[in-house]
Protein backbone atom coordinates (compact mmCIF):
# COMPACT_ATOMS: atom_id res chain seq x y z
CA UNK A 1 0.00 0.00 0.00
CA UNK A 2 1.16 3.51 -0.76
CA UNK A 3 2.35 5.23 2.41
CA UNK A 4 1.08 8.56 3.64
CA UNK A 5 4.60 9.94 3.20
CA UNK A 6 4.73 8.85 -0.45
CA UNK A 7 1.20 10.16 -1.06
CA UNK A 8 2.29 13.53 0.34
CA UNK A 9 5.35 13.49 -1.93
CA UNK A 10 3.14 12.74 -4.96
CA UNK A 11 0.88 15.61 -3.96
CA UNK A 12 3.81 18.02 -3.60
CA UNK A 13 5.33 16.91 -6.91
CA UNK A 14 2.09 17.71 -8.71
CA UNK A 15 0.55 20.60 -6.74
CA UNK A 16 2.81 23.59 -6.15
CA UNK A 17 0.21 26.11 -4.95
CA UNK A 18 0.15 26.11 -1.15
CA UNK A 19 -3.57 26.92 -0.94
CA UNK A 20 -4.40 23.96 -3.19
CA UNK A 21 -2.24 21.76 -0.99
CA UNK A 22 -4.21 22.97 2.03
CA UNK A 23 -7.42 21.94 0.28
CA UNK A 24 -6.00 18.42 0.00
CA UNK A 25 -5.01 18.45 3.67
CA UNK A 26 -8.54 19.51 4.61
CA UNK A 27 -10.14 16.73 2.56
CA UNK A 28 -7.64 14.22 3.99
CA UNK A 29 -8.56 15.28 7.53
CA UNK A 30 -12.27 15.05 6.70
CA UNK A 31 -11.91 11.62 5.12
CA UNK A 32 -9.94 10.32 8.10
CA UNK A 33 -12.62 11.62 10.47
CA UNK A 34 -15.35 10.07 8.35
CA UNK A 35 -13.48 6.74 8.27
CA UNK A 36 -13.64 6.64 12.06
CA UNK A 37 -17.39 7.28 12.02
CA UNK A 38 -18.25 5.05 9.06
CA UNK A 39 -15.94 2.11 9.69
CA UNK A 40 -13.45 2.72 6.91
CA UNK A 41 -9.71 2.15 6.86
CA UNK A 42 -8.23 5.37 8.25
CA UNK A 43 -5.05 5.36 6.18
CA UNK A 44 -6.76 4.47 2.90
CA UNK A 45 -9.45 7.10 3.34
CA UNK A 46 -6.88 9.73 4.37
CA UNK A 47 -4.73 8.99 1.31
CA UNK A 48 -7.78 9.26 -0.97
CA UNK A 49 -8.42 12.72 0.46
CA UNK A 50 -4.78 13.69 0.21
CA UNK A 51 -4.50 12.76 -3.46
CA UNK A 52 -8.02 13.36 -4.81
CA UNK A 53 -7.20 16.48 -6.88
CA UNK A 54 -3.44 16.03 -7.27
CA UNK A 55 -3.60 16.61 -11.03
CA UNK A 56 -5.66 19.80 -10.75
CA UNK A 57 -2.89 22.24 -11.72
CA UNK A 58 -2.35 20.26 -14.93
CA UNK A 59 -6.03 19.64 -15.76
CA UNK A 60 -7.88 22.73 -14.48
CA UNK A 61 -8.65 23.79 -18.05
CA UNK A 62 -9.52 20.25 -19.16
CA UNK A 63 -12.07 18.83 -16.69
CA UNK A 64 -12.46 15.72 -18.83
CA UNK A 65 -8.82 14.89 -18.02
CA UNK A 66 -9.10 15.61 -14.28
CA UNK A 67 -8.43 12.39 -12.34
CA UNK A 68 -7.69 10.58 -15.62
CA UNK A 69 -4.15 11.98 -15.67
CA UNK A 70 -3.88 11.35 -11.94
CA UNK A 71 -4.96 7.73 -12.39
CA UNK A 72 -2.06 7.22 -14.81
CA UNK A 73 0.39 8.76 -12.35
CA UNK A 74 -0.93 6.65 -9.48
CA UNK A 75 -0.91 3.43 -11.51
CA UNK A 76 2.78 4.03 -12.30
CA UNK A 77 3.34 4.45 -8.55
CA UNK A 78 1.62 1.13 -7.84
CA UNK A 79 -1.21 2.77 -5.90
CA UNK A 80 -4.10 0.46 -5.11
CA UNK A 81 -7.01 0.39 -7.56
CA UNK A 82 -9.44 1.04 -4.69
CA UNK A 83 -7.79 4.43 -4.12
CA UNK A 84 -7.61 5.27 -7.82
CA UNK A 85 -11.25 4.38 -8.39
CA UNK A 86 -12.42 6.46 -5.42
CA UNK A 87 -10.50 9.45 -6.77
CA UNK A 88 -11.89 9.01 -10.27
CA UNK A 89 -15.44 8.56 -9.02
CA UNK A 90 -15.51 12.06 -7.53
CA UNK A 91 -15.21 13.37 -11.12
CA UNK A 92 -17.88 10.95 -12.34
CA UNK A 93 -19.39 13.54 -14.66
CA UNK A 94 -16.35 13.05 -16.90
CA UNK A 95 -14.92 9.66 -15.96
CA UNK A 96 -18.20 7.75 -16.04
CA UNK A 97 -17.20 5.98 -12.81
CA UNK A 98 -20.06 6.72 -10.45
CA UNK A 99 -19.48 6.39 -6.71
CA UNK A 100 -20.43 2.97 -5.34
CA UNK A 101 -18.66 2.49 -2.02
CA UNK A 102 -19.03 4.37 1.23
CA UNK A 103 -15.52 5.79 0.80
CA UNK A 104 -16.36 7.05 -2.69
CA UNK A 105 -19.57 8.70 -1.49
CA UNK A 106 -17.73 10.25 1.47
CA UNK A 107 -15.18 11.84 -0.87
CA UNK A 108 -17.90 13.16 -3.18
CA UNK A 109 -19.72 14.93 -0.33
CA UNK A 110 -16.82 16.11 1.81
CA UNK A 111 -14.78 17.59 -1.06
CA UNK A 112 -17.25 20.44 -1.54
CA UNK A 113 -18.06 20.73 2.16
CA UNK A 114 -14.43 21.40 3.09
CA UNK A 115 -14.41 24.31 0.63
CA UNK A 116 -17.54 25.75 2.18
CA UNK A 117 -16.13 25.39 5.69
CA UNK A 118 -12.87 27.10 4.67
CA UNK A 119 -14.88 29.99 3.20
CA UNK A 120 -16.85 30.32 6.46
CA UNK A 121 -13.59 30.23 8.45
CA UNK A 122 -12.02 32.95 6.33
CA UNK A 123 -14.78 35.43 7.22
CA UNK A 124 -14.89 34.46 10.91
CA UNK A 125 -12.75 36.53 13.29
CA UNK A 126 -11.58 33.40 15.11
CA UNK A 127 -11.03 31.49 11.87
CA UNK A 128 -11.68 27.73 12.03
CA UNK A 129 -11.83 27.50 15.82
CA UNK A 130 -14.82 29.85 15.87
CA UNK A 131 -16.79 28.08 13.15
CA UNK A 132 -19.83 26.12 14.30
CA UNK A 133 -22.30 23.82 12.58
CA UNK A 134 -24.82 26.66 12.87
CA UNK A 135 -22.53 29.16 11.12
CA UNK A 136 -21.92 26.68 8.29
CA UNK A 137 -25.65 25.98 7.98
CA UNK A 138 -26.36 29.71 7.79
CA UNK A 139 -23.96 30.08 4.85
CA UNK A 140 -25.12 26.78 3.34
CA UNK A 141 -28.42 28.40 2.42
CA UNK A 142 -26.72 31.38 0.75
CA UNK A 143 -26.03 30.14 -2.80
CA UNK A 144 -23.85 33.16 -3.59
CA UNK A 145 -21.51 32.41 -0.66
CA UNK A 146 -18.77 29.99 -1.76
CA UNK A 147 -20.75 29.46 -4.95
CA UNK A 148 -18.34 26.76 -6.11
CA UNK A 149 -19.33 24.46 -3.25
CA UNK A 150 -21.96 22.18 -4.73
CA UNK A 151 -24.65 21.95 -2.07
CA UNK A 152 -26.37 19.04 -3.82
CA UNK A 153 -23.21 16.92 -3.61
CA UNK A 154 -22.85 17.81 0.05
CA UNK A 155 -26.49 16.92 0.81
CA UNK A 156 -26.01 13.47 -0.71
CA UNK A 157 -24.47 12.53 2.65
CA UNK A 158 -28.01 11.96 3.89
CA UNK A 159 -28.88 9.33 1.30
CA UNK A 160 -25.47 7.84 0.54
CA UNK A 161 -23.88 7.86 4.00
CA UNK A 162 -27.02 7.76 6.14
CA UNK A 163 -25.84 10.88 7.95
CA UNK A 164 -28.10 13.88 8.52
CA UNK A 165 -26.60 17.03 6.98
CA UNK A 166 -25.87 18.70 10.32
CA UNK A 167 -24.18 15.56 11.68
CA UNK A 168 -22.08 15.32 8.51
CA UNK A 169 -21.04 18.96 8.83
CA UNK A 170 -20.19 18.39 12.50
CA UNK A 171 -17.92 15.42 11.66
CA UNK A 172 -16.10 17.20 8.85
CA UNK A 173 -15.78 20.46 10.79
CA UNK A 174 -14.41 18.65 13.83
CA UNK A 175 -11.83 16.81 11.74
CA UNK A 176 -10.74 20.06 10.09
CA UNK A 177 -10.54 21.89 13.42
CA UNK A 178 -8.08 19.24 14.64
CA UNK A 179 -5.84 20.23 11.72
CA UNK A 180 -6.38 24.01 11.96
CA UNK A 181 -2.64 24.76 12.19
CA UNK A 182 -1.82 22.68 9.11
CA UNK A 183 -4.67 24.36 7.24
CA UNK A 184 -3.48 27.83 8.25
CA UNK A 185 -6.86 28.57 9.77
Topology:
Layout: H1 4-14, H2 18-38, H3 42-51, H4 56-59, H5 68-77, H6 81-89, H7 92-95, H8 102-123, H9 133-140, H10 151-160, H11 165-178, H12 180-183
Helix pairs in contact: 1-3, 2-3, 2-8, 2-11, 3-6, 5-6, 6-8, 8-10, 8-11, 9-11
Looking at this protein, list some descriptive labels.
185 residues; mainly alpha; Hypothetical protein af1432; 69% helix; globular
Describe, in plain words, how this protein is organized in 3D:
- The protein is mainly alpha-helical.
- Helices cover 69% and strands 0% of the residues.
- The protein is globular, with a radius of gyration of 15 Å.
Class of secondary structure makeup: mainly alpha
Largest beta-sheet characterization: none
C-alpha-based Rg, rounded = 15 Å
Order of helix and strand elements from N to C terminus: HHHHHHHHHHHH
Proportion of residues in β-strands: under 5%
How many beta-strand segments? 0
Uncertain spans: none
State the helix count: 12
Would you state the CATH class? Mainly Alpha
Shape descriptor: globular
What's the overall average pLDDT, rounded? 96
The name CATH uses for the topology is Hypothetical protein af1432
CATH architecture: Orthogonal Bundle
Q: Distance N terminus to C terminus?
A: 31 Å
**Structural domain count:** 1
Q: What level of helicity do the residues show?
A: 55-70%
